[in-house]
Design brief:
transmembrane; membrane; about 300 residues; transducer; mainly alpha; Rhopdopsin 7-helix transmembrane proteins; globular; 11 helices; sensory transduction
């Protein structure tokens, strides 16, 4: 266990990530809800961004509660915070955030990639109708994963009186419980695989595009190439945040990191960077959000 002064850098970093994430995701939710009210007909992008913002909002709240109590009230954190309810919400928001990010990468891939295969075209023209079902499926899958993790119920209480002279017997249930948790969370490899596939398809599409458009209009070629490159930059940045969060999340789920150690706090900081950084990239890559967000920042500065 490290002292509060040693954990102070973590508190500062976590607070900055939390404030940034709450601001950005709150802005994302408000802007899309405002557009939704005006249009009265939800678009796939609006639904997706609202779901992403809400899932990140929830994930940041869970991570902030965990970090706050783990630093200031470590005993209370161990006894009360890291319980069944917190485990469920943490697993749910972690899973649904990854699934929604995957849905966004698939959406970018289908809208920008120029493949002509019948299956791809079928998905491309129907993604608008399929998006609500994909979001619902992501929600149900995340709830299932969270429920299974609670069912695995690690760490389970062990009767120390019965096992105080049997170290091996105490170790075996612990290993089994860790394995159960890891097996459940390996289901999150599925959205990761889809994310990688979407990124790879965008790479292939860009490569084919640069060779296919040799005889086309220079302006059209540049515009299409620029769209591919911008999408690739966005998706690759998404992937970096996605992969770092996934790695930190899986490392945290092994419970092999000593509680209260520097590694413990570093893992928490990496995990908190995903819901903040990923949403910032969404704003920066979308021109219609840039100007309103700048006005919001200027308004805050002038107050």
């Amino acid at each position: 266990m490290i002292s509060f002064l040693s954990a102070l850098p973590h508190v500062i970093v976590m607070s900055a990530e939390f404030i940034t994430g709450i601001t950005v995701n709150g802005f994302l939710i408000i802007m899309n809800c405002k557009e939704l009210i005006k249009s009265r007909k939800p678009t796939p992008v609006q639904l997706l961004f609202i779901c992403i913002g809400m899932s990140r909002f929830g994930l940041l709240m869970v991570l902030m509660i965990q970090s706050f109590f783990s630093v200031l009230f470590p005993l209370f954190y161990k006894v009360n915070i890291f319980g069944t309810a917190m485990l469920f919400f943490w697993m749910f928001f972690s899973s649904v955030s990854l699934w929604f990010a995957t849905c966004l990468s698939v959406f970018y891939c289908l809208k920008i990639a120029g493949f002509t295969q019948s299956c791809f075209l079928w998905l491309k023209f129907r993604i608008s109708k399929l998006m609500p079902w994909l979001l619902l499926g992501s929600l149900l899958a995340s709830m299932s994963i969270a429920a299974l993790c609670v069912e695995a119920d690690y760490p389970k209480k062990v009767d120390d009186n019965a096992l105080k002279n049997a170290t091996l017997k105490r170790t075996e249930p612990k290993i089994r419980q860790i394995n159960e948790m890891l097996l459940v969370n390996l289901a999150l490899l599925f959205p990761l695989a889809i994310f990688v596939m979407s990124t790879f398809m965008l790479f292939i599409s860009l490569y084919k595009h640069t060779h296919r458009m040799q005889n086309g209009s220079h302006g059209v070629r540049n515009a299409s190439t620029k769209a591919h490159i911008n999408a690739l930059k966005t998706v690759i940045t998404f992937f970096c945040f996605f992969l770092s969060y996934f790695a930190a999340f899986m490392a945290n789920m092994t419970f092999s990191i000593p509680y209260g150690s520097h590694c413990f706090f570093v893992v928490k900081d990496i995990m908190a960077a995903f819901p903040s950084g990923h949403s910032i990239i969404i704003l920066l890559s979308n021109s219609k959000y840039q100007q309103p967000f700048r006005r919001l920042l200027c308004f805050k500065k002038n107050q």
